[in-house]
Automatic annotation (TrEMBL):
It is an enzyme of class 2 (transferase). The lineage of its organism: Eukaryota, Fungi, Dikarya, Basidiomycota, Agaricomycotina. GO terms for molecular function: ATP binding; protein serine/threonine kinase activity. This is non-specific serine/threonine protein kinase. InterPro entries: Kinase-like_dom_sf, Meiotic_Drive_Suppr_Kinase, Prot_kinase_dom, RIO_dom. It catalyses: L-seryl-[protein] + ATP = O-phospho-L-seryl-[protein] + ADP + H(+); L-threonyl-[protein] + ATP = O-phospho-L-threonyl-[protein] + ADP + H(+). Its EC number is 2.7.11.1. Residues 46-265 form the Protein kinase domain. It holds the Pfam family RIO1. Gene3D superfamilies: Transferase(Phosphotransferase) domain 1 (1.10.510.10). Keywords: ATP-binding, Kinase, Nucleotide-binding, Serine/threonine-protein kinase, Transferase.
Amino acid sequence: MVYLEISFALPCDRAVGRQTSDPLTLDYLPIFPDDTPQTDEVWRVNADATILRRGDEIHVFRAQLLRPNHGPTDVALKIDHSGKRTGAFLDEATAYTKLVAAFQGTIVPRFFGCFQTTLSNTTISCIITEYCGEPLHTNLPESPPELKAQLINVVEQIHRAGVAHGDLQEANILLKDGKLKLIDWEKASSHSCDRQLRLLQGAIVPTPEEFGRNELYETFCEMGLWSASTTPFMGVNIDNNPSGRLKSLDITYRPTCTSIRHGRK
Ligand SMILES: [Zn+2]
């Protein structure tokens, strides 16, 4: 079994009667029956963890994870100190282990495990992932074109693998060294993409019915991809169609968007 020792203060400490000098020990939560570690290990996190996000139910810390036979690892600890998110944490851990396992380390953070303990009838849960930077500070529509292009690629990869994220928003998109990673997978689901069209470079804006109404479409809409009605396409302003649907994509970032191809699927 693997145990996690936390020695920094948590918001629930007073409610559960914990002195901060007491290390809090959480048990590794196997997601699958054969997921139980064969050896006994204690993992620790440094006491001077920094807080990244403060919430009524969840706090997120950045810390160094110390494991036997490993160097220190820069991680994020998402801790439910309210006991209200136990199911959501399990859903998220399952998504990391199953739905998006193949993307860990690339467009999804590496997942180190989910840990739990119960104190004074409150279930404390902790998910540990690789630290992957800060959430986007700008709204998606105002984000730089390279970031939008990268996000399209990332979301398209996920959908092609048959997964919908379910909660795409700025707070769930991390940026570090120019690379995007998606977090907060608790609402993720298996997804059969109903997308009817591939994205056309400089295409006529499809209707939701033509494209398939899913989070890809929603994301493109939210990013203003299909509302650049006055942006000239190839130097020609094509926004003169009476139907109002002939609008150009903002093509300035298209060349870096390698997963987008011409043509019908
Ligand atoms: Zn899809």
